[in-house]
């Protein structure tokens, strides 16, 4: 069944947006790896790439954001050569995505982007630790979870603030105009 | 910020503090049991690679596998990941650990260092006075 012009334009726009978001997310991951963070907390990171995932979740559909998450994880694994731990980061990212998606869907009126971002940051840490504990068959690694809850909270707030500034700026672009009305 | 945000922040902070605060409180045994030397298990790919005593003296243990090399250093009744050639270097951020249940994990190399709990050393003398 051929799509109408309007529909196919919309699909094309979506695809382009996902591609651009993925590119920016990967760049943010690289930038993040250059910033030296000397916290003695294993696995703690800024999670700048989550800015793009959250923005995507805001403008587009859940499945588009899911596509972005998978793309971003695979591309960063290529760039950093971390294939051996790619499944772990995929597990963390997917878990983070699922909880963000649910909180966004269920708490549309009660939770702002900052709340969604916090849940995402904490969810990422939880997902990764869980993946590690499954592979190593040891629950001792959860020792670090409380600390990672705190770092996830703080970085989540920072990422949320960034998204709060990014969304209104993007809304002004004509590309995002029609997606804005969805909400 | 909305009400839901504050609720999320409060819940996460409460859960984190619930687990963290007991660790900050003065431990009943953590400081004064240095006469009892702990051991740590090093596992590679889920199999026990070596059990080391956490002595005050320095020990260097190299763990080589087809994935890469990790260098573990024991000193001052604790252990730390000293060097590695893994791509993400997350294992180096675990720092120096010396309490039971703490662990160091190197995901890319599937290496884990776990400090064992204090065992009952029933048949050993408590102290020898010369």
Would you summarize the structure shown here?
Chain B: InterPro entries: NusG_2_sf. The complex is a heterodimer of chains A (183) and B (130). Helix content of chain A is 75%, strand content 0%.
Low-confidence stretches of chain B: none
**SSE string of chain B, helices as H and strands as E:** HEEEEEEEE
| Net shape of chain A | globular
The H-and-E topology of chain A, N to C, reads as HHHHHHH
CATH class of chain A: Mainly Alpha
Unreliable stretches of chain A: none
State the major sheet of chain A: none
Q: What is the terminal-to-terminal distance of chain A?
A: 28 Å
Strand content of chain B: 25-35%
> What name does CATH use for the topology of one domain in chain B?
mini-chromosome maintenance (MCM) complex, domain 2
CATH class descriptor of one domain in chain B: Mainly Beta
Number of helices, counting only DSSP H or I runs of 4 residues or more of chain B: 1
Shape of chain B: flat
Structural class call of chain A reads mainly alpha
The structural domain count of chain A equals 1
On the 0-100 scale, what is the average pLDDT of chain B?
82
CATH superfamily of one domain in chain B: N-utilization substance G protein NusG, insert domain
Keywords (chain B): Membrane, Transmembrane, Transmembrane helix
InterPro entries (chain B): NusG_2_sf
Pfam family, one (chain B): NusG_II
